[in-house]
UniProtKB/TrEMBL annotation:
The keyword Cell division applies. This is UDP-N-acetylmuramate--L-alanine ligase. Keywords: ATP-binding, Cell cycle, Cell division, Cell shape, Cell wall biogenesis/degradation, Ligase, Nucleotide-binding, Peptidoglycan synthesis. It comes from Candidatus Gottesmanbacteria bacterium RIFOXYB1_FULL_47_11. The keyword Nucleotide-binding applies. It comes from the Bacteria. InterPro entries: Mur-like_cat_sf, Mur_ligase_C, Mur_ligase_C_dom_sf, Mur_ligase_N, MurCDEF_pg_biosynth. One of its GO terms (biological process) is peptidoglycan biosynthetic process. Residues 3-104 form the Mur ligase N-terminal catalytic domain. GO terms for molecular function: acid-amino acid ligase activity; ATP binding.
Amino acid sequence: MKRIHFVGIKGVAMTALALWYKEAGNKVSGSDVVEEFPTDEILAQAKISVLPFDEKNISRVGPDLVIYTGAHSGRENSEVAAAAVRGIPVVPHGKALGEVMNGKKQISVAGSHGKTTTSAMIACILARTGQDPSWAIGCGIVRGLGLPGHFGKGNIFVAEADEYVTDPGHDRTPRFMWQHPDILAVTNIEYDHPDAYATFGDMQAAFKALEAQSKMTIKSADVQLSRVSFGDGRTFFTLSEQGTKLFDFTLKVPGRHNARNAATAALVARELGLSWEQIAEGLLAFGGTKRRFEIVGETNGVKIIDDYAHHPSEIKATLAAARDWYPESRIIAVFQPHTYSRTHALMSEFARAFEKADEVILTDIYASARETETLGISGKTLVEETAKYHRNVYFAPDYAATAKRLRATMQQSDIILFMGAGDIYGWSKRFIEK
């Protein structure tokens, strides 16, 4: 059995691939920082040990292959360097994922937003029809499906296709360029990752390059959402083609954006030969993914929701979903900006993103490990800009200040949404426990 060591294993994409390798019969280990991550529970459940970063891990583990993430210094990480010195193959995550997809019918889901949910929906539909696909989905547990990574015996591999670069500072190849999709689903394209793409045109060019090496692309508007409605904790939608109804669908997840994600998943499944009845059954079985409108619990009649939204469009979609599902409730949005580069580049869009919230609490900016410059902004800068468009905006730099503000303002039947891609993922659980 081969020994595979993952440097930076707690990243959601790395965890998914590690699970695939373990189910494929390999001995898997990993290393990362000691702080809590959303994937800790999954790695423990899979009995994959996680060591603190230390170059001596390479001699202790004795891996045949080292897979590393672009975070944590990429190939300059001390463990990666130690492996290279010993002649052990070292491969970045994006390339490793592309290699394990080879030999399977590749379903790649790309897009600025929605690729995690759409990938999970496709995998759920296929799994429910007994096709046992492989998948690698960058999230925690997928309700209705299971773990985010799976080695299937079927001939299909479903994976997210991430537009970010392979290894910042070393390999600027977009990560999705290591994939060669038989079917490419594109949810949307919007400007993001200003540290990787100078302009929106540069991002578009990357997606066009991926399309050029794909056999088929699902992105047309021939099939349309002709109806979307909500009720009793469900989302209902109808797909039509040229005015003719195709089928009615029901989802257990909220939001018009998820109806669009489901429409994309349905078209991919249809292209694979499944009936509308099979597709509808699979979509109904999908219960959402970790950190995507995840209802963490309730405290004193207040519902607490955690969400990964870290881009203005994602914030708008998440808040709109909350308003659709809880039209009578007061909505409090707690947002932790993620990276100085993104916050700086999209400052105006962020400031206008909270229209559906009754109250907004903004924190300090969570910096990426790759960032060295603040670009002259802070969380207070975003508060000042947001206050131009929203009456109830407050600055709470950290968890303690946020919890204090929430305790002072929350009322029964409120909805509190914790949003962001930084360490805010643990705040909702802490708030309930306290």
